[in-house]
Write a structure and sequence with these properties.
CATH superfamily of chain B: Probable tRNA modification gtpase trme, domain 1
Largest interface: A-B, 66 and 64 residues
Largest sheet of chain A: 7 strands, mixed
Strand order of the largest sheet of chain B: 8-9-10-7-1-11
Radius of gyration of chain B: 18 Å
Number of domains of chain B: 1
Order of helices and strands of chain B: HEEHEEEHEEHEEEHE
CATH topology of chain B: Gyrase A, domain 2
CATH class of chain B: Alpha Beta
Radius of gyration of chain A: 38 Å
CATH architecture of the largest domain in chain A: 2-Layer Sandwich
Distance between the termini of chain B: 43 Å
Largest sheet of chain B: 6 strands, mixed
Shape of chain A: elongated
Chains: A alpha+beta, B alpha+beta, C alpha+beta
Strand content of chain B: 25-35%
Oligomer: heterotrimer
CATH architecture of chain B: 2-Layer Sandwich
Number of domains of chain A: 6
Shape of chain B: globular
Bound molecules: zinc ion
Number of helices of chain A: 24
Structural class of chain B: alpha+beta
Number of helices of chain B: 5
Chain lengths: 1018, 212, 130
């Protein structure tokens, strides 16, 4: 197929570089410099999509991010699929493959359209509202049709081959928008020496200047742009970012920019010098000042059948002609409310095709451009508008009529003009989306017929977005606004003599307020007048909403879907509000404006994720012994960000093909090894805090529930830490290293939180206490050697006197282990004789290996967290966060022995223990559970009831907190919290499971093994 | 017994010692040497790291006496001795990081304790808990921009500055003791993550890992 | 994403470096044993939730690890000042109201979260700010 709408000359495309591409399975050609949209128009592709709700054929309407119809699915391969790409924003490259996102089975012959506008009756205005108000079952019925028919784009089913990244940026001035205003702002900012960033969403900088008819300093606008861009690119203090959309404007001038770095080259990023390049990049910009130079979006007029392909926004037609050398039709009717749009007729005429008429809603056309048109012999019809387009797959004619805008009615004098293109302009809406992200409300300006940004601290809006439209005025406004902003942040040197290009002043007549065009029939009966093409919202729909009582535009929006989704109301919002205002007999500002939300245009997940994916999704913390664990086949468990050995499956005895133990087998073997011989655990992940100062002891007494006044150097004590509400927050042992020196341990997960907790109380409540805390978690590697043979093994590697009367339970000693200086703590989390060896982490590996060298004959067995859990649970030792959940007091746990009720200072949590709810006797208490069936291992989290025969919902009296199979006991066992549990020892409780099975269990003491603690004391 | 327990946790014999990046180097091959590499990375392992806490007025004189460096009192600054081997960095109004060649830390600790006498302060050896990763090269700054929200532009991060800040999804101390030399002081358990992150972020510039 | 001035580091840092710790200037009862259950309950559980000026406790957790206070506008998220532990704010709802009365200008503009500018909404906003 040839490029039937391509002109022979003009445009910023390279006719010597032909590019082939595929759209909906058909091959076409375009040129380097095209967008997918301009190439489609050049090839005469009228229908690019089917509409969301009514399944009507749709064509390209605009030339920028405001395009509502040409939303495509991009990508040649499955892995490279990208949904929701606007064809108007996608540069053409060789081999590009795109499909329509809507249309089933295809856009030309649409099934839903043939079935008879299924959407029409299925999805009236208020569809979302009514559906979500209705029983959920209704949604299930609709959803499959909507998803299939509406085609919301789809994500790839294969892993993305590309990489993406983030970059953090800081600048003095961030200029958003690289059109006339942005370039003028950049120039003065660059001269001032400030750190400047300029971003623009288009393929090249220049904005509307790239299709402007104006001259600057005697140069055609695009040439002036090249000159300025070259100048800016040479400045060290300026970073230029084309193809970069400012997508979100967040608190305190934090702006996210989405830079598409390779999307214009291929569908997957090419390598450069064999090094991988990020396909796109998210810039996280912290700007001292933001210059908002986002310009305007031209508003189309709302008339009957204004969605038929061939209806375009006037400015877009000019863009296609002047930038891409594409005239998207043969015969043009232009319907306008303002002077500026006349340029489209001039551009069309100059390209050698016919302008049938300009239909101007104003009584007269006096401006300079109107006079030029008149001089060319173009017919101008005043006080009239296009009221309806004719045609189905392409415009065939325009029905025009005299209109009375004040009375909102047609006066007669109807005429039908044969044409294939209708371009319309209802004025220019400032692109206020970004300033709106900040939560600041925009301000309506009657003179602009649009909203302009409200005041945002640290932001200046310049040019079109501020309602300044004429080029000369834009340049002046942007320069002056930027000069003031620079001064405010301390850059005033170079901005004293700003350079302004020489631009002609244009005489323009005022525009009139025209949004919806009246039709001879009422809006409800007239052909559909579309307001929001992407969401298929019509003027009649908005009227209906107001009649049904929705008065706020926010409610109208939710009722009709106006401005929903990826569209964010770019073309339709103001028109929609104007219609609502007319129906409600209010002014537009009285109806309000909707809040635009990030993102301005869709951002790929890749760019959002950056390199925080795959192996780098989250930090993995390793202990100093990690390499050994990997070598020895450990399976790992995530504990916070730590990778802890979970269990060490061994090759099964006699296994032919190297088959390894199951988890249950490995854990059973590890458990028995510790109880019968000796095991070793890498406990390095425990939090450790070095505490020094004369008030260290006093401080411990205030943050722990138990007493610390008499703990002697060389001794260790277990402590509970509560919040001031009396609920347990952490536990651990603390050793007295010297009179004013302690080493606290915390749970693995609680380390950072406890450290902050100590600082909180020290800094805010008790700054007078002389004490300092320093985290030493990573400094010390910790190895627990535990089991009946532990002393024998230790005696082979250490010079420390291990005799039971010299080194007792809850003592610590200093010495050498395997020749490495070590502190050894006789504490036990298994209930067995145990030594916790702390060495400087760089020397952990030689110590660990030495232990294994000597440990073989004692049956030294490495064990992981699962075995640790079983062993401690057999002893009824809690794990904070598993057996507790922030609603458990030390008393609930039966740990009154660790509470110093008579300490002089009212320690954290003490007062709360006597509050009525905390002091209740029927609180959930910590107990053991022994299932009746020894083979049963109860489910952790299972709810407990006293009476299984009661009707549902049953009264739940507690739940299982920990549950394991014990190879030592030969049966399953569990820990639980149960209402008044300690007074119910021996009673039977029931655990109804979701599969209908009801387990029976006996309430027992939580200590299942060695209740007197003789084994750890040997 | 003394009121604070001093303990020299460094053995005389360094056989078998493993730095925090030992596993990273062992696990996979470092990227092939690249003459055009934009970034060069190396670990300065086994240094002496001490955390000194106390009031600046209390500590100032003793630090100068023992270490021969002025205690940096201004936030986010760093003082280095003439040889560039020993440094002390402001971490907080009452907290400093001292870095010295490995093996000096315990001697220094004892000397500082002696000089400070009965003053209220704390001094903690954290040498096993962290390591230093050095970044050099024309793209070092660009690599950092991908990794930390802190502003590393020369105007905001001159030589002699040091901060604790966010790095990817963890935190570290970032400092520039000399021109074109960035030091990342990383907690041991996060070292591998930071290392892998750096290799990934710098891949587009080319990266060389220097090993002794 | 806030940009927060740490009064100890003496420079602005990204929000990621900080943790909020709730309302500032909470007073733990001096003699917990002799305060009533209600007083203790108030201290534990009850917090202000103003629409407007709020004094908050934050910690520079990835940084100097110091706790400090932020005076923040809860509707437009503007940070009006930060100050060290033990210091009192120089800007409060009261000082701002006094400034407004003096200048006849509303001190905190912008940042309204409600939309649909109907007169009754305006009234609500004005009321909440007064
Ligand atoms: Zn700070």
């Amino acid at each position: 197929m040839t490029q039937i709408h391509r002109s022979n000359r003009g445009g910023r495309i390279d006719r010597s570089r032909e590019l082939s591409f595929t759209f909906n399975g058909k091959r076409y050609t375009g040129y380097a410099g095209d967008t997918l949209a301009s190439a489609l128009l050049a090839n005469g592709v009228d229908i690019v999509n089917r509409s969301f709700k009514y399944s009507r054929p749709r064509g390209i309407v605009a030339a920028g991010p405001e395009e509502p119809n040409a939303v495509v699915q991009l990508g040649a391969s499955e892995a490279a699929q990208v949904p929701n790409v606007r064809a108007t924003q996608q540069a053409l490259y060789e081999g590009l493959v795109a499909r329509s996102t809507n249309g089933w089975p295809n856009v030309q012959r649409d099934m839903m359209g043939m079935i008879g506008k299924l959407g029409g009756s299925f999805m009236p205005p208020g569809f979302y509202y009514k559906t979500f108000m209705a029983p959920a079952s209704m949604w299930m019925t609709y959803e499959k049709y909507i998803r299939k028919g509406a085609g919301l784009g789809r994500s790839p089913l294969e892993s993305d081959p590309d990489i993406y990244d983030h970059i953090n940026q800081h600048c003095d001035v961030l200029i958003i928008g690289g059109g006339a205003a942005g370039l003028a702002a950049a120039r003065i900012a660059a001269d001032s020496g400030a750190r400047v960033m300029l971003c623009d969403e288009q393929e090249e900088l220049g904005g509307s200047l790239l299709d402007s008819r104006e001259t600057l300093d005697g140069l055609p606008a695009p040439e002036w742009v090249s000159q300025v861009v070259t100048e800016l690119a040479g400045r060290e203090n300026v970073e230029l970012l084309p193809r970069t959309t400012a997508n979100g404007y967040h608190d305190h001038n934090f702006v996210t920019l989405h830079e598409r770095r390779t999307e214009h080259l291929r569908d997957t990023a090419p390598a450069v010098n064999r090094r991988p390049q990020a396909r796109s990049r998210l810039h996280r910009v912290r700007a001292r000042h933001v210059i908002l130079a986002t310009g305007t979006h031209e508003r189309p007029l709302v008339y009957g059948n204004n969605d038929v392909p061939g209806n375009l926004v006037a400015g877009a037609v000019s863009t296609y002609i002047r930038r891409f050398g594409v005239v998207p039709g043969h015969k043009l009717v232009l319907s306008v409310s303002n002077d500026h749009a006349y340029r489209t007729a001039l551009d069309w005429h100059e390209s050698g095709r016919e302008v049938v008429a300009i239909v101007d809603a104003r009584a007269t056309s006096q401006g300079e451009l109107a006079e030029q048109a008149r001089a060319l012999g173009i017919r101008i019809i005043n006080q009239s508008a296009v009221i309806e387009a004719k045609g189905s797959d392409r415009v065939t004619a325009a029905r025009i009529a005299r209109v009375d805008l004040d009375a909102f009615c047609v006066l007669g004098h109807e005429e039908t003009l044969s044409c294939d293109t209708i371009a319309s302009s209802g004025g220019y809406s400032p692109v206020i989306h970004l300033s709106s992200h900040t939560g600041t409300r925009p301000v309506w300006r009657d003179d602009v017929l649009g909203f302009v940004p409200g005041d945002v601290k640290g932001m200046t809006s310049v040019g079109g977005v501020h309602g300044v439209f004429a080029l000369k005025a834009v340049l002046e406004h942007a320069t002056e606004g930027t000069r003031r902003a620079l001064e405010a942040i301390g850059f005033d040197g170079a901005s004293s003599a700003p350079r302004l290009p020489d631009v002609a002043e244009r005489r323009e007549a005022p525009a009139c307020a025209l949004f919806q065009v009246p039709h001879v029939k009422s809006a409800m009966r007239a052909p559909k007048q579309f307001v929001d093409l992407q969401n298929d919202v019509t003027a009649a729909g908005i009227e209906l909403a107001t009649r049904e009582g929705f008065e706020s535009i926010e409610h109208v929006k939710r009722y009709t879907a106006l401005g929903f989704g990826t569209d964010q109301g770019k073309l339709g919002n103001i028109n929609g509000m104007a219609i609502a205002a007319r129906c409600l007999k209010r002014s537009i500002p009285e109806v309000g404006t909707t809040v635009f939300r990030p993102n301005y245009t869709p951002v790929t997940f890749g760019a959002i994720v950056g390199r925080h994916c795959r192996d780098l999704f989250d930090p993995e913390r390793y202990t100093a012994l990690h390499a050994w664990h990997v070598e020895h086949g450990a399976e790992f468990e995530d504990v916070g960000q730590w990778k802890r050995p979970w269990y060490f499956p061994q090759v099964r005895a006699g296994a032919v093909s190297g088959e390894r133990e199951s988890m249950a087998e490995a854990v059973a073997r590890e458990c028995l090894a510790v109880r019968e011989k000796v095991g070793i655990l890498d406990a390095s992940t425990l939090g450790k805090i070095d505490i020094q100062g004369p008030d260290a002891r006093e401080f411990l007494g205030r943050v722990y529930t138990n007493k610390w006044a008499k703990l002697a150097p060389g001794r260790v004590r277990y402590g509970l830490m509560c919040k001031d509400d009396g609920m347990l927050m952490d536990d651990g042992t603390t050793s007295c290293l010297a009179e004013n020196h302690f080493l606290m341990t915390t749970t693995t997960g609680g380390a950072a939180g406890v450290m902050e907790w100590l600082e909180l109380w020290h800094q805010t409540e008790w700054p007078e206490l002389e004490v300092y805390f320093t985290s030493v978690t990573d400094h010390w590697a910790t190895m627990t050697v535990t089991g009946p043979q532990a002393r024998k093994l230790m005696s082979e590697v250490t010079d420390i006197d291990l005799s039971p009367d010299q080194f007792k339970f809850m003592d610590w000693r200093e010495g050498n282990v395997a020749g490495i200086p070590a502190r050894v703590f006789r504490i036990s989390f298994t209930g067995e004789l145990a030594y916790e060896i702390n060495v400087q982490a760089n020397y952990a590996m030689p110590v660990w290996k030495a232990l294994f060298e000597k440990g073989d004959k004692y049956g030294l067995t490495p064990y992981g967290t699962e075995t640790m859990h079983v062993l401690r649970a057999e002893k009824g030792l809690i794990i904070v966060g598993q057996d507790t959940d922030g609603s458990v007091t030390p008393e609930d746990l039966g740990m009154q022995w660790a509470v110093g009720y008579d300490k002089p200072f009212s320690w954290i949590g003490k007062r709360a223990l006597t509050r009525p709810d905390t002091a209740r006797t029927d609180r959930k208490q910590f107990v053991g559970l022994k299932p009746r069936d020894p083979k049963v291992v109860l489910e952790e989290g299972a709810q407990i009831v006293f009476d299984p025969e009661q009707s549902i919902p049953m009264t739940m009296v507690g739940h299982v907190t920990s549950s394991y199979y014990s190879p030592n006991l030969g049966h399953g066992f569990a820990l639980a919290v149960i209402k008044g549990g300690r007074d119910r020892l021996g009673q039977t409780v029931y655990l109804p499971m979701k599969d209908g099975v009801v387990h029976e269990a006996e309430i027992v003491s939580p200590v299942f093994i060695d209740p007197k603690g003789e084994r750890q004391n040997v | 017994m003394s009121e604070i327990r001093e303990f020299d946790c460094r053995p005389n014999d360094q056989t078998g010692a493993e730095s925090p990046l030992a596993w990273s180097f062992q696990r996979g091959p470092a990227p092939a040497a690249d003459a055009q590499a934009g970034v060069t990375l190396r670990e300065s392992a086994f240094m002496g790291h001490l955390i000194l806490r106390g009031g600046a007025i209390v500590l100032d004189e003793a630090v100068r006496e023992v270490l021969g460096i002025n205690l940096p009192a201004r936030p986010n600054t760093l003082a280095v001795d003439a040889k560039g081997e020993r440094s002390i960095q402001w971490l907080s109004p009452d907290e400093w990081l001292i870095l010295v060649p490995g093996g000096e830390e315990f001697v220094l600790e004892k000397a500082l304790r002696h000089a400070l006498g009965q003053a209220h302060f704390s001094l903690v050896n954290v040498s096993g808990g962290q390591t230093v990763i050095t970044l050099r090269g024309p793209k070092a700054r660009e690599t950092l921009k991908k990794s930390t929200p802190y502003d590393v532009h020369p105007s905001a991060f001159p030589v002699g500055k040091g901060v604790t800040t966010i790095f990817a999804k963890t935190s570290l101390i970032l400092r520039q003791p000399q021109a074109d030399c960035w030091e990342l002081i990383v907690r041991r358990s996060f070292a591998d993550y930071v290392y892998r992150w750096l290799l990934d972020a710098a891949a587009e510039f080319g990266v060389t890992v220097e090993r002794r | 994403m806030f940009h927060i001035y740490c009064p100890y580091c003496e420079e602005h840092r990204e929000e990621e470096e900080f943790h909020p710790r709730g309302q500032a200037h909470l007073q733990r009862p001096a003699d917990p044993e002799n305060c009533s259950d209600k007083e203790w309950g108030d201290y534990l559980f009850f917090r202000d939730n103003p629409r407007g000026i709020h004094h908050e406790l934050w910690v520079h957790s990835v940084g100097c690890r110091k706790f400090f206070n932020i005076t923040r506008h809860t509707a437009n998220y503007e940070i009006l000042e930060t100050y060290k532990m033990g210091e009192r704010p120089s800007i409060t709802a009261e000082t701002l109201a006094a400034d407004e009365r003096q200048s006849g200008v509303q001190a905190a503009s912008g940042g309204w979260q409600t939309v649909g500018a109907r007169p009754e909404d305006e009234a609500l906003n004005t009321e909440a700010r007064a």
